[in-house]
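Before surveying the methods themselves, let us examine one representative protein, pairing a chain with its fold in token form.
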Amino acid sequence: MTSQLCADGSGNPAATSSSDGEYSDSQGNPTFKIDKDGTVDWYTSVGYIRYTANCMQCHGPDGLGSSFAPSLVDALQNLSYSQFLDTVTNGKKNVSASQDLVMPAFGVNPNVMCYIDAIFVYLRARSDGALGRGQPQKSAPRPAGYSAAEDACMG
């Protein structure tokens, strides 16, 4: 699959730069890179794994939502990277007569925060229609230095 330009709260998802295997768009937001043969960048692949381990329980498989939490595929159509980061870090509460929606804060959880860019990149690729459901079948290799950075973040 190739990247499509769709509604995206963070703007145009096209990768314009990269550093150590992590791609950024023209605004400096984390983004995905998917080759014509379907190979996804390392961060998109890791984002799928970390999303599945930490977010799927509430937001459903592939970011499509559930009875517990909304679709993140839909939410990222309008949600910017900074808004996403703020919500995951600090949580969110939206209580009314018809609903009681509470997103817990994950700001001190290294299993989420050490991979926040990867989770965002995966969801951005899903939201933009560039990545289908399920685990990506082909992934770029782990970038040099990734393991050391991961170990340092996880403590």
Notes: The longest helix spans residues 42-54. The radius of gyration is 15 Å.
